[in-house]
Every structure is written in C-alpha cells, then in structure tokens.
C-alpha cells in the first residue's frame, strides 16, 4: 500500500493535472457504479455503461482541470487580511476559503456545471430547456445536501491537507457525494 501512495505522490508532483484527471475520473465513475448498483431507478434496470462513461469523462476531462485550478486559486488568492488577532491567520484563511468554496463554487459553478455537462452528454435536447428543468428540480436539493457534507470536510481539507492533495481528498469523500449526484441526476 505504501508503494501505491509513494507512486501516486510521485505522479502528483511530476504530472499533477494528468494524475488528478485520472483519479477524479476513476472516482466519479466509482460513485456512478455505486448509484446504479445500490440505488437503481428500476429494480430490473441493467447497468448503463454509457452513463458510467459519461461520469468518468465528466470527472476526468471537465471537473478535474477546474478543481485542480480552483484549489490552487483558493490557496493563493484567499488569505486572511488580519494578522494574529483573536484567531490565527491560518484559521481565518481556512474559514474564508470554505466560505468562498461553499457560497461561490458550489452553487454557481460546481452544481450547475455538473447538471449542464451531464445533460449535454446525455444528448437531452433541447439542451437549454432540459438544463433549466434539471436546475428547477435538482439544484436546491443538491445544494442543501452539499451544505450538509462539504463545509465541515472542506474546513479540515483546507486546514490540514497540503494543496497538492486537496483534490484527491475531495475525490475520496466524493465517492459518496458522486453516488448522491448520480442518483439525483437520474431520479428527478
């Protein structure tokens, strides 16, 4: 196991974007497999390999590059303006990063991007009408679910995890989250 972690760390340092693309695609695909196997829309529903491939493509080609840049941006651009008042600068910076992540990225980038990209990849035409319908039925319920999981996790992620490992940490927790997203995407 330590050789796998060592190899992953080496790849992450040498080729961070490619490594994040592979791991994110794999983990989004894993979340979709869990959703299809354990939470099918219909008990007799066969496994949908195309749906799973869409999840892998979304994770690797669409979300991973954005997530990689997002976590680097948060780490460099969002910093406490206060130096050692009541709380430490690190604590304040972490709280600010979580706030920006949860009040900007999740509602206005992450969730809309997922539903838009998946609707387009499913070829649900007319695209704009179907994307708007998905937002009406799923955006708020997804955002509320997001706020039950991610603020606490992201606080620990931003506070404890080095920036190069943050997307991986998110991806590991995202196995459950991606199961939820896949379930919501295909049930409403």
From TrEMBL:
<feature type="transmembrane region" description="Helical">
    <location>
        <begin position="156"/>
        <end position="181"/>
    </location>
</feature>
<keyword id="KW-0812">Transmembrane</keyword>
<feature type="transmembrane region" description="Helical">
    <location>
        <begin position="21"/>
        <end position="39"/>
    </location>
</feature>
<keyword id="KW-0472">Membrane</keyword>
<dbReference type="GO" id="GO:0016020">
    <property type="term" value="C:membrane"/>
</dbReference>
<dbReference type="GO" id="GO:0005739">
    <property type="term" value="C:mitochondrion"/>
</dbReference>
<feature type="transmembrane region" description="Helical">
    <location>
        <begin position="95"/>
        <end position="115"/>
    </location>
</feature>
<protein>
    <recommendedName>
        <fullName>Protein SYM1</fullName>
    </recommendedName>
</protein>
<dbReference type="Pfam" id="PF04117">
    <property type="entry name" value="Mpv17_PMP22"/>
</dbReference>
<comment type="similarity">
    <text>Belongs to the peroxisomal membrane protein PXMP2/4 family.</text>
</comment>
<feature type="transmembrane region" description="Helical">
    <location>
        <begin position="55"/>
        <end position="74"/>
    </location>
</feature>
<dbReference type="InterPro" id="IPR007248">
    <property type="entry name" value="Mpv17_PMP22"/>
</dbReference>
<keyword id="KW-1133">Transmembrane helix</keyword>
